[in-house]
Design brief:
Oligomer: single chain
CATH topology of the largest domain: BirA Bifunctional Protein, domain 2
Bound molecules: adenosine-5'-triphosphate, magnesium ion
Strand content: 15-25%
Shape: elongated
Number of domains: 3
Strand order of the largest sheet: 1-5-6-11-10-9-7-8
CATH architecture of the largest domain: 2-Layer Sandwich
Largest sheet: 8 strands, mixed
């Protein structure tokens, strides 16, 4: 579990400014698509995840933080966001109030994983769920939303991998074929997959173990076994992606980690080596059966989740910075001016400027050192002379001529001063 800190204080994780940038972009892009934010508790009844994610998954089988509370209930820190969102949707009878619901969430998830780059025990996901539409357009809308978010934050080289898992009509026959094939390679599979063969054979396709991946390469292809309606749905997804100009790769090995997926599944995979084996930045799919299985209405749904830790690491790797330096550093020239400078700083902040002031006092030299460190655009030194004349100098920290200002018009002067071309600042504002 990590601490997220401002500036360059934490070396492993991206600075908090990068996280905030991604979060702002998310809210902006998702609201354009009509998605409303939901915030659910970080704890849920353990049974919710057992019934939705599935007992046989790594998440529920090995990775959940589960404990008994003082009332003797078994609770778990949420390992993912779909089950809580669906629980809330059912609990608030949302389907009776609106036929189509679009939600997103941003927040921490918890899984007891082995820690490596891009894989943590408290990590953060951005996710979205669309409930009420069974159409391919809904799948594509979600993928489009991810693509637009990735574009908005400036991440390139992330490819969309697309698959269909079929449904009750065609998956059983495929599964039988798959099991037949996998059984003939039983000895080559990892221990987990030998067990999965009995409990949930599709998941073998998803195994990260290189031995299993080698076996899976030659496994029967689900896309060749789809029934007509599933095939039509998949073709429609591809047609609509093409129409939007969204590029994708068809990859029959994308099965996703959770039970209850039907038809469309997808993953966004980064080409970047920074993440090593953790190169999947997100994924999602259709889960038309989940709501009913959880005792809710028979409502089709589709969603995705993106890993914020991995998105921010990729941004950090790309060298982009998102810090927002102060507009102005107000320095005190002599002790008699300390109150006036303190009051001036307060007034300028009220007017909307980002102002730094060294509350420790100290020599002008030490204050200027601090001003340098904060990377403020301007400094203003307030002393007896400035107080008496009502005028001061705005000194651009990047060099250049000082600007003479009246002490009553500092905010206007800072705002109208030409911005030094700073690519980093542009990225933060863009
Ligand atoms: P992986 O195959 O990498 O274990 P997953 O299938 O377990 O991923 P999902 O449950 O689909 O992951 O979660 C969606 C995204 O959340 C992942 O693509 C990843 O970016 C992020 N994520 C999942 N687990 C972690 C973790 N332990 N630490 C950081 N990010 C994670
Ligand atoms: Mg995992």
């Amino acid at each position: 579990m990590n601490d997220l800190l401002p500036g360059e204080l934490s070396s492993d994780m991206a600075p908090i400014e990068t996280w905030q940038f991604v979060e702002r972009a998310t809210r902006e892009v998702f609201s354009r698509f009509g998605y409303g934010e939901v915030r659910t508790p970080v704890l849920e009844d353990t049974g919710l995840f057992v019934r939705s994610v599935g007992e046989e998954t790594d998440i529920v089988g090995k990775e959940m933080y589960t404990f008994e509370d003082k009332g003797g209930r078994s609770l778990s820190l949420r390992p993912e966001g779909t089950a809580p969102a669906v629980r809330a949707y059912i609990e608030h009878s949302v389907s009776n109030q609106e036929p189509l619901t679009r939600w997103y969430y941003v927040g921490p998830m918890f899984r007891y994983e082995r820690m490596k780059t891009g894989r943590y025990r408290q990590f953060y996901q951005i996710g979205a769920e669309a409930l009420g539409s069974k159409e391919a357009a809904q799948d594509v809308e979600l993928m489009d939303m991810v693509v637009q978010l990735l574009e908005r934050i400036g991440l390139k080289d992330i490819s969309l991998n697309l698959n269909s898992l079929g449904d009750d009509a065609c998956r059983p026959a495929y599964q039988q074929k798959l099991v037949g094939y996998l059984k003939s390679h039983r000895e080559e599979l990892c221990e987990d997959c030998q067990r999965r063969l009995e409990t949930n054979p599709l998941r073998v396709l998803d195994c990260k173990n290189p031995k299993c991946q080698a076996v899976v390469q030659a496994a029967p292809n689900i896309l060749q076994e789809l029934c007509e309606p599933c095939k039509a749905h998949f073709d429609e997804v591809k047609r609509k992606l093409d129409a939007l100009g969204i590029r994708y790769v068809v990859n029959p090995q994308i099965v996703r980690g959770l039970d209850y997926y039907t038809r469309t599944t997808f993953e966004f995979i980064a080409a970047h080596p920074a993440l090593g084996t953790a190169s999947t930045v997100g994924g999602g799919g259709r889960y038309d059966k989940l709501l009913k299985a959880l005792g809710g209405p028979d409502v089709p749904a589709v969603g995705f989740a993106l890993g914020m830790d991995r998105l921010t690491l990729l941004l950090k790797e790309s060298g982009q910075k998102f810090s927002d330096p102060p507009d102005l550093f107000v320095a005190v020239a002599d002790e008699g001016s300390a109150d006036a400078a303190f009051t001036l700083a307060s007034k300028l902040r009220k007017e909307g400027l980002r102002v730094e002031f060294d509350t420790r006092g100290g020599s002008l030299k030490s204050q200027m050192k601090r001003a340098d460190k904060t990377k403020a655009r301007f400094t203003l030194v307030l002393g007896q002379a400035e107080r008496e004349s009502g005028k001061a100098q705005l000194k651009p920290m990047a060099g250049g001529d000082p600007i003479a200002v009246s002490l009553t018009e500092v905010t206007q002067a800072v705002r109208s001063a030409p911005q030094a071309p700073a690519p980093q600042a542009t990225a933060a504002q863009g």
